[in-house]
Amino acid sequence: MAEQITPAAITPLAPGPEVRAFEQAQQRVLQTCGVAAQSRYVQLQTPPLRVHILDAGQGDPVVLIHGGNGVAVQLAPLLAALQSTFHLFAPDRPGCGLTDKLDYRGIPLIRDVEIVMSFWR
């Protein structure tokens, strides 16, 4: 049975100068790499988490998930190489980039992947 993530474990990402600076830096990286990506946000119900996704390209869908302590925009060189062939989705994992923060204490790693993938259900 999957561990329940309570709303107390989630810290919404608050707008502010740090978020704006990150968004601007992300845009510069995407432009430098020639990636025509859109930032999208999906509000999950369980857990109640707002997830940021880079959405680029056309074709068959491919989901790219960054590693720990990373962000989706780090995949920009790969997005650039694949965007002409595939419809790419690169979410910021919970606690990373522009996705709400999550207290991972007591939550197995597999639960992180389940959360990220839940917006396709």
Describe the protein's architecture and organization.
With 121 residues, this protein is α+β, with helices and mostly antiparallel strands. It has one domain: Alpha/Beta hydrolase fold, catalytic domain (Rossmann fold, 3-Layer(aba) Sandwich), CATH 3.40.50.1820. Helices cover 27% and strands 24% of the residues. The protein contains 3 helices and 6 strands; from the N terminus they run E-H-E-E-E-H-E-E-H. The chain has helices spanning 17-33, 76-82, 109-117; strands at 10-11, 37-43, 50-57, 60-63, 86-91, 101-102. The strands form 2 sheets. A 4-stranded mixed beta sheet has the order 2-3-5-4, with no helix packed on it. Strand 4, helix 2 and strand 5 (86-91) form a beta-alpha-beta unit. The mean pLDDT is 89.
User: How much is the radius of gyration in Å?
Assistant: 14 Å
Count of alpha/pi helices: 3
The strand order across the widest sheet is: 2-3-5-4
Main sheet makeup: 4 strands, mixed
The portion of residues forming beta strands comes to 15-25%
Return the structural class.
alpha+beta
**What's the average pLDDT?**
89
CA-based shape: globular
Number of domains in the coordinates? 1
CATH overall fold name: Rossmann fold
Question: Can you tell me the CATH superfamily?
Answer: Alpha/Beta hydrolase fold, catalytic domain
- What level of helicity do the residues show? 25-40%
* Poorly predicted regions: none
Order of helices and strands: EHEEEHEEH
Name of the CATH class = Alpha Beta
Report the strand count: 6
What is the CATH-assigned architecture? 3-Layer(aba) Sandwich
Distance between the termini: 18 Å
